[in-house]
């Protein structure tokens, strides 16, 4: 039984049990579930899948044809995705908030026979950017003819059949379509199930207490999609955020056991908590500061006799109220897409909330390593998942091979050959592994800054530390390739005077060639909409360097004068 057949079997057994929900703040039950009309039971999801499959067959698509899916998360998104896979089509999910011109470029590359959008506004924007677009269907059309007839079993697929083309972020160039197969998904979902079993206990359809999972990241991203499929493969209730402006309320009201995060959100939560405590002042702020210092010493194995007192006091007076806001049932936070600062991971652990890190790329079916809930090392992203091999190659590059590795990029054989060599996938990430088998990601090869002195510098560790030190900073990017020293662009509401002090503090810990000598403050943060962040929030370094070329040049000209 492959992953898709397993999901269909689960849905049939679930019957009247709610498995998907949409979080509409103000429309939730006291138990934290979405109100009537905003949920789907196993039977209801199968009915939606059946309607979508009928529509797809009537559209004349055949096995192996591509079907693009451009819409925000919803119950209907999940149903249409499963319908596409069940018909043997190749799903091409894209980020609905991406610029229409970027969407058009990826769609032109994928060549879908059908494009499905949730609303006419997005459909019209894509059509304006791509005049030769294929037939476009709105969700209302796809699901117009619901029937009580259950969806038939998925068509037969082999482990080598491609089921999806997911487009990479394109941090420094054109996005590429990553092909993923049935075999890739079979292996990955067996691994995620095992890890979730360790966290929550073995999953059973008969279990009266399903996993409660909250989710806000777009399903078009590999890790997000894997979580959706994992929840459908287990006994779970997955509640989707429907309004990111109400994320804090949704997190609290859904009372989830776990949810997937990007480091940015966890950094913001931490910053918000610490900022609120500073504003309160008095004994609460004093106790919190003492507890943080004590927790740091405990983790550095330099604890003092009074440290347990401060931690115990904070555990009684402060930490419970913080945990309550994140949900009374929270077992863990899961974090991926980029390395999380060790201090932030320790912060949540201090509150009694484990943070499980995951590392991987779209090309590795989203995951290479996953933290073991029973043994977490802050600052590391866990051991390699079962069944795959990882090693350190030239220039500390992480190399991976196993059943999770993609077969290639869509219509890009030369670029495929560049990263798949001698059965190993060259990730482009730099890292190291410790004696316990836990991995740490230290940088990205293509992001290396090479000074004119010949020194090679991975910018990420310095950027992360500076972001941690500077209050109000939203993003930090280092520049200096081919120059004589490093400079930084900092976005957000950061005080330049404080920045001077914090940069001096950081510089005192760095060798001469890694010191930051100049900086530029830009109040407006980089965004996806302005083309300076990828769809999943990573810095587009080349685009930023081009956009701020005058500001960068000024930092170096001033020094020369």
Provide the CATH topology of the largest domain: Rossmann fold
Mean pLDDT: 90
**Radius of gyration (Å):** 24 Å
Query: How many structural units, i.e. domains?
Result: 3
Structural class: alpha/beta
Task: Provide a count of the helices.
Answer: 19
Beta-strand share of residues: 15-25%
Question: Low-confidence runs (pLDDT<50, min 5 residues)?
Answer: 28-37
> Widest sheet: strand order?
2-1-10-9-11-12-13-14
User: Helical percent range?
Assistant: 25-40%
What is the CATH C-level name of the largest domain?
A: Alpha Beta
How does the major sheet shape up?
8 strands, mixed
Q: Tell me what the CATH architecture of the largest domain is.
A: 3-Layer(aba) Sandwich
Please identify which CATH superfamily of the largest domain we are dealing with. ANL, N-terminal domain
Distance between the termini: 70 Å
Task: Count all strands and give the number.
Answer: 25
Shape: globular
